[in-house]
Amino acid sequence: MRLKSSIWVAAYLRRCQTEGVFGAVRRRGAEEAGAVFIKIALLDGNAMLYIPAPQTVYDDSRPIDRFFTPTSKEPIPEASVEERLTKEIRFDPDAWIVETEDRAGRHFLNLARA
What is the pTM of this model? Predict the structure, then answer.
């Protein structure tokens, strides 16, 4: 059983706060198991988007872990990130969107191995 999305998001935002990074929930999704999308705004017009990793990455022995994968190797224009998020919400209305602002692009996420 995985940790509820709402609890994971609250813990993630607290982690960001302790590192001095501003973050907020832009869209609240399904409390129990909504997919979580993380946008890192670099404050220069560019951003990174991290999406949930495929289910095959998960290990049932560690239900609190969530893994993410970036949609691109390099930052992209924020408008492109917003377009992608709009499509994701149309596809999955239960999804969460969390946005942080950090010029260095720190994300504090567990990334899936490629």
Answer: 0.90
